[in-house]
């Protein structure tokens, strides 16, 4: 029995030294605030099982967390975003949408006109959640 345990440990030890468990890599979601004029972005992200808390990001600050998709590919994180009088919420990580779009690093950037999601495959933004139009127009008048 001891030799079997040793063989098992030698065979699977590489998996213990990486971010991969049972062939499932960790995914990191990062949110960057690039709102102008030192505007603060407040975010509150959650999943069914985890509340990641409320975070206030100053301009050019970020917040990130890592996790593994569940076995059934139903992993879901959603976030509320707010700054000034604008707010919106959306699914920031949805396994069925994002497991191939951004398998290791899901990057989101909040700007004055919306929150942009970037594909890991081509590096371009491929998902945009817009702030309410009236706030965008008011903000542009302030420049």
Automatic annotation (TrEMBL):
Entry annotated with the keyword Transit peptide: no
Gene Ontology CC entries for this record: extracellular region
Record keywords, A-Z: Secreted, Self-incompatibility, Signal
Main subcellular localisation: secreted
Intracellular or extracellular location(s): Secreted
Gene Ontology biological-process annotations: rejection of self pollen
Domain of life: Eukaryota
Signal peptide residues on this chain, from the entry's feature table: 1-23
A Pfam cross-reference name: Self-incomp_S1
Database matches in InterPro entries: Self-incomp_S1
Name of the protein: S-protein homolog
Natural source organism: Trema orientale
């Amino acid at each position: 029995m001891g030799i079997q345990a040793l063989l098992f440990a030698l065979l699977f030890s590489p998996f213990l030294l990486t971010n991969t468990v049972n062939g499932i890599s960790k995914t990191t979601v990062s949110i960057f605030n690039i709102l102008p004029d030192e505007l603060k972005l407040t975010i509150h992200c959650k999943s069914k099982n985890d509340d990641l808390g409320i975070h206030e990001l100053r301009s050019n600050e970020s917040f990130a967390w890592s996790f593994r998709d569940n076995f059934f590919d139903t992993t879901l994180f959603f976030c509320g975003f707010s700054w000034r009088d604008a707010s919106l919420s959306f699914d920031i990580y949805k396994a069925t949408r994002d497991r191939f779009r951004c398998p290791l690093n899901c990057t989101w950037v909040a700007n004055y006109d919306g929150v942009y999601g970037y594909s890991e495959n081509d590096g371009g933004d491929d998902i945009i959640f817009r702030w309410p139009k009236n706030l965008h127009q008011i903000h542009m008048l302030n420049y």
